[in-house]
Request: fold
Amino acid sequence: SEALSTETFHGETGKAAVFGDVKQAIYRFRGGDVRQFQRLPAVEGSEHNRIINEREQKLKEQFHEINLGVNYRSREEIVAFNNDFFEYRRQNQKENDSYVFSMYKDLKQNPMTDNKGGGLCLSTISKDNLREMTYNDYVALRCLEIIKQLQSDGYNFSDIAILTRKNEMGSFINKYLSENAVPVISVDSLLLQYDADVALLLACLSCMYTPDNSLSRAIIIKYICKLKQLPFEKYLSVVKTNSLFIKTLSDFGFHFMPSKLAHLNVYELTERLIGIFDIQNKNNPFVMAFMGVVMQFQINASKQYLHFMEFWEANGNSFSLSNPEGMDAVNVMSIHKAKGLEFPVVIYPHQKENLSNPSYAWLNLNQDEYPIDIAYIKLGNNLNNTDYVYLYEEEKKLKELDALNVDYVAYTRAEERLYLITEKEKNPQVSAYFEATAVPSETGTYGDIIYKRGVFDSKAMKVSEKEERKVVLTDENVFVNLPELVSDIRFETRELRWGNKLHAYLSLVKQKESVDYVKQLISDDIQLEDNEKQTFLRVLDNIKLNAHSNVLFGVERAVIKTEVEILDAEARSFRIDRLVTDGQRTVVIDFKTGLKETSHKNQVMNYVELLYQTGYTAIEAYLVYISMEGDLEFIKI
Reply:
C-alpha cells in the first residue's frame, strides 16, 4: 500500500504486484497468516487506524486480481488429478465451517498444451495387513519397490524425490534405502558423522583418547565384520579388553596400536589411520571433508578443547557435505524444504496430522472480570462453554487448512509421476476418492491395494518429447557464501571472510546515492575490525568517484541488479555480482579480491554467453580487482 498511496514529485503513484497461493501457505508455525492474503484488498485493523484505512481505500480503488491458471511444471494427468482431488476435498467441507471451502475455490489449473501424459499411483494398505509390520516398514518396502520399477523404466536415482511430513519418517526411509544399496541425499545422509568410514576414524580417535571405550571398539569391530562379511555377534566379546581387541584387529591384518601412534598430532594420526584401514583408495568425499575439518582444527587449535574428540562432541553434528549437486541419488526431504522445487518423480507417504495436538495463543482479557489484562491460554476443549470458544473453533479450521496445504505442496512438486502411499484407515479421503472415480486397482506384494491412473511410459520416450530447457535468470539480492567442501563457516580463512563481507556490502550499492548509506552501515558494523572498516570505506569512495562510474552505475535510469542468479541448461547455478542495463547496453561486472587468475576471465565469459542465451544484447564485461588497501583495477574482457 506504500507504493500505491505515496505520490512522487510529479504527483504520480506507484505500482505494486503481490504474488501468492493460499493453498501453499505452510508456514503458520513461523507466524505466517494466510488470512491476510485471502482478505485482500481489505487490510486487518483498518477500522481502528485512520492511516491504514486511507491506504486500504487506495488499495481497493486500484486492486485487480489475476488468477494464473497455467501449470508449467506437471504433465496433463497430474494436473487433472490435482484439480479433481482437491475439488473433491473442497466439496466435502461445509462452506461456513472450513477455510478449505473458500481458499480452494479457484484451484483449477490447465497444463501446457504439449505437456501430455503423466502417471499417478496410489498404494493403500489397511490395518489388517499391518499386523506383522509397522506402517513405516511398509512405506520403506514400498518405496524400494517403486524405485526399482522406476530404474527399469529408465529413471535415474536423482530424478526421484521422497517427501515426508516429519523428519523421523525421512530418516527411517533413508536408513532402509541406504542398507539396500540405494544412494540417498538427505539431511542425515550428508552429515559427515553418518558416513561409515568417518565413523570408523572417529571410533579410532576415541580409542586413542579414551582407551577403555568399549563402544568405540565395538564400532571398529562391526566395521571390520561388515568388510569381511563376518557375523558381528561372533566377535562382539573381543571388545571387553583392550589387548584382545588389538590382537583381533592384528589377526585381520589391521595393525592399530594406539601406544605407537600417541606421539602424532591429530592430523598425522588421522592420515595414519586412513592407511592402516586402507581407506585412501576409496576417494570418499566424506573422508576428504573430514580431513579438512581435522586440518582446520590442527591449524586453529585452541585451549578451549583438550583434544579433537572433545571438539567433535561439541560440533560434529554441524559438519556436512555442502555441494551434492551432480550425485545420482534419491532425494529424501521434508515437504517444507521441497516447497518451490520440482522433481520428475515424487513419492509421498502420507502421515496423518494430529489435529488434536494443543495450540496456544495470547488473549486480551477484560480487566473488569480478571486481575490480569493478558493471558497465554491453551486452545482446546477447555474453552467450550466459554466466551472464548470461537478461538478454539478458529484454530481447528486453520489446522485443517494447514494439513491440506501440506498435501497440496507435496502433490504439486511432481513433473511426470506421482506416487502416493497411505494407510487406509488414517487417510480415508484419498482411498475414497480413488474408489469413487473407479480407478482400476490390483493387489500388491503386501496385501495392499494399488491404483494407477495415466500413462507410465519409459523415461527414454519422454526425453525426446521434452522441449529444450532454457536458461533461467533470477534477481535474488541475498548474499550467499562461496561453496566449500565442508558446510561450516567456522573454518573460513581470514581472506575469504574479508572477501565475503566486502561482497555483501557491494551488493547493497544500487545507485551512487546509496553509497553514503552503505558507508554508514560499514561504520556501524561491530563485527568489522577497524582496519577492515577503513579499507571497505575506501572501496566505497573509489566506487563513487572512479572514472569508471558510468560502468558501475550506467546512464540515467539504468537498471542495476546485484547478486543475480542465472541457471544454465543443466540447472547449474551461477551468480553475477553486478548487472547494469541502461537501454543501450548491458554491463556484467564481477568483483575479485584475490590474485588474478585466468579462470576469472573464463568465468565472466560464461556469464556473458548465458546472458546472450536469455536474450540480452550489446553486452560488455568487466573484472574489477580490489586490493587489500581498497584500490580498484578495472579490466575490460
Residues 473-636 form one domain. DSSP finds 24 helices and 18 strands in the chain. The longest strand covers residues 414-423.
